[in-house]
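A.,

Following up on our hallway conversation. Structure tokens first:
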């Protein structure tokens, strides 16, 4: 038996019941359709339309079917027919229909699960009526004032969709929009083409006649005000310090306002001098081959790409940890980080050639810090952002910028670096006083030098303190060598002993200590060592004098073993005396017997002389 949904079901469920289940294709339900009789194929009819319902009723009569569903279909068809007649009367322009009547018809249709052509037409007519009753009045009121361009466009677009283009208010709005769009194009051309102030004033007057709110009008008005007030602001910029950005803004406004070149001459000259200053500052700070600006360099982390004159990278350029000014650095081998892929000069990162050759993987100081690992080659160096000019030159450069009366952004960053260098310079002067008073330790001086080595502006005292630290370290090393036993070193074909040439040379350390202002606790250690050395030298010379008349005693061995200060001449002579004594017994067995004709001495003086001669040979 054929089953139909009730009139309260939705449009889709009614269709599904009429066909005993819908066939799903591509995720959508296909509406059930039938073909009317007649013709070769018949006309395709949707079952949820009025024609479809009427066809079902006709088929039921032909089949002599009597059921409750048939009665429901007949009632539905009768309601739809009555609704269609009422809808067509409402759509007839000859009949005046109120908004409430249209709403009632659309609500009545909501209870009919049928597709009726008049539904869309009624909705469109209702929308038109509402627009004419409400929106039309709003548009007319807006046109009496100065409406916004966007509001007019929206209202006209709605009217066009409803077919109300011929309404008087819509026509008026369309004319005003077209005029406004033409004005906007002229204003854009004037603002971009540096139009004369008279052209801008004309545009402003035309905009007032349009009676429409235009966003671009504010830009035109601002340009006019800038042009009128440009002379006063230009004079103010020349009389007091101004920023380079403001100076360039004034010149741009002058060009747009067609200010005569003679009035712009002083500002152009200042801009040219400021640009020349920027070029000098960039040449002083930026490393060769760097394509970044000075501000970017000073605000960077020091890791940026450098290229040579041919546009390619080369090993003679600076790395992240050098300035590129020292050939002793840039001519060395380079080592690449296996983490970040950057390349550095070996000496710049503390890696020797032999160490580099033995490495399988290398982690640079920056990557080691990022991974929270200790750098494998000593104290990690700090990146050098710039070429690091000297403090005196930078101060002169900043004074030139101040004399220009222009606030240059690069000068602010350079000034910050200069202040850090000057602060370090004050610390260095105070430390020099401590050095002169023999109160400065080597570790404190080293710390100060390390702090100065991180500055991008090099203070004048940094080189002096670096040389001082070097001399102090050499002095300390020399003092420590006094207590070390001489070590034999081979130089060419000769074997020499590394030791001081004599106690007199060692006493030169005392003079150096006075010149270097060595603290008392360190110089006292030297004085104690030299006193011990003097006593040892006296004992060594006494032993040498005694060994010239008799074999060396056990005291000589004790002197060689317990000396605190090794002084080369005496030390070597004692070693020679001991060695001679050890060799004499073996030589005595090979002494040449005197001839039989030689008289035999009673006091054995001849034998002693002969032994001395053998010793001289040895």
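Then the amino acids I'd put at each of the 618 positions:
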């Amino acid at each position: 038996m054929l089953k139909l949904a009730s009139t309260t079901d939705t449009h889709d469920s009614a269709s599904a019941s009429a066909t005993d289940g819908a066939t799903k294709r591509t995720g959508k339900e296909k509406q059930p359709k039938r073909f009317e009789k007649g013709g070769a194929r018949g006309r395709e009819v949707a079952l949820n339309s009025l024609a479809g319902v009427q066809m079902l009723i006709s088929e039921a009569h032909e089949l002599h079917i009597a059921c409750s569903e048939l009665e429901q279909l007949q009632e539905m068809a009768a309601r739809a027919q009555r609704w269609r007649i009422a809808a067509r009367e409402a759509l007839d322009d000859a009949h005046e229909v109120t908004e409430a009547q249209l709403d009632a018809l659309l609500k009545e249709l909501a209870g009919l699960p049928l597709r009726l052509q008049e539904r869309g037409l009624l909705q469109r007519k209702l929308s038109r009526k509402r627009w004419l009753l409400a929106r039309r009045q709003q548009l007319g009121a807006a046109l009496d004032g100065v409406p916004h361009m966007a509001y007019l466009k929206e209202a006209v677009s709605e009217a066009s969709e409803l077919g109300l283009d011929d309404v008087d208010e819509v026509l008026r709005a369309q004319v005003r929009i077209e005029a406004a769009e033409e004005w906007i194009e002229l204003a854009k051309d004037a603002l971009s083409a540096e139009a004369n102030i008279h052209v801008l004033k004309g545009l402003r007057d035309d905009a007032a006649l349009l009676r429409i709110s235009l966003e671009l009008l504010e830009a035109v008005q601002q340009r006019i005000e800038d042009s009128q007030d440009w002379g006063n602001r230009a004079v103010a910029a020349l009389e007091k310090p101004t920023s380079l950005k403001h100076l360039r803004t004034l010149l741009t406004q002058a060009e747009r306002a067609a200010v005569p070149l003679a009035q712009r001459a002083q500002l152009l000259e200042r801009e040219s001098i400021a640009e020349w200053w920027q070029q000098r500052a960039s040449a002083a700070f930026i490393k060769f081959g760097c394509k970044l600006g000075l501000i970017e360099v000073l605000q960077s982390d020091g890791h940026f790409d450098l290229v040579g004159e041919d546009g390619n990278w080369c090993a003679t350029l600076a790395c992240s940890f050098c300035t590129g000014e020292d050939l002793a650095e840039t001519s060395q081998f380079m080592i690449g980080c296996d983490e970040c892929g950057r390349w550095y000069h070996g000496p710049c990162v503390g890696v020797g050639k032999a160490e580099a050759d033995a490495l399988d993987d290398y982690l640079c100081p920056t990557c080691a810090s990022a991974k929270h690992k200790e750098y494998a080659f000593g104290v990690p160096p700090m990146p050098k952002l710039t070429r690091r000019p000297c403090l005196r030159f930078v101060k002169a450069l900043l004074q030139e910028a101040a004399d220009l009366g222009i606030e240059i952004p690069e000068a602010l960053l350079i000034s910050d670096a200069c202040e850090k260098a000057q602060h370090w310079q004050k610390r260095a002067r105070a430390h020099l006083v401590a050095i002169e008073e023999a109160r400065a330790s080597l570790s404190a001086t080293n710390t100060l030098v390390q702090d100065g080595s991180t500055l991008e502006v090099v203070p004048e005292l940094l080189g002096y303190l670096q040389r001082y630290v070097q001399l102090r370290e050499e002095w300390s090393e020399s003092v420590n060598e006094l207590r070390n036993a001489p070590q034999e070193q081979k130089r060419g074909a000769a074997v020499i002993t590394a030791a001081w040439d004599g106690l007199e040379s060692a006493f030169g350390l005392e003079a150096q200590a006075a010149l270097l202002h060595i603290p008392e606790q360190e110089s006292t250690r030297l004085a104690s060592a030299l006193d011990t050395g003097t006593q040892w030298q006296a004992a060594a010379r006494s032993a040498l004098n005694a060994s010239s008349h008799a074999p060396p005693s056990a005291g000589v061995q004790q002197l060689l073993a317990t000396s605190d200060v090794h002084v080369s001449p005496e030390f070597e002579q004692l070693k020679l005396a001991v060695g001679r004594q050890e060799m004499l017994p073996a030589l005595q067995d090979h002494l040449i017997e005197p001839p039989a004709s030689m008289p035999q001495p009673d006091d054995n003086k001849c034998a002693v002389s002969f032994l001395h001669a053998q010793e001289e040979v040895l």
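The chain has 25 helices and ten strands. Curious whether your intuition agrees with the design.

B.
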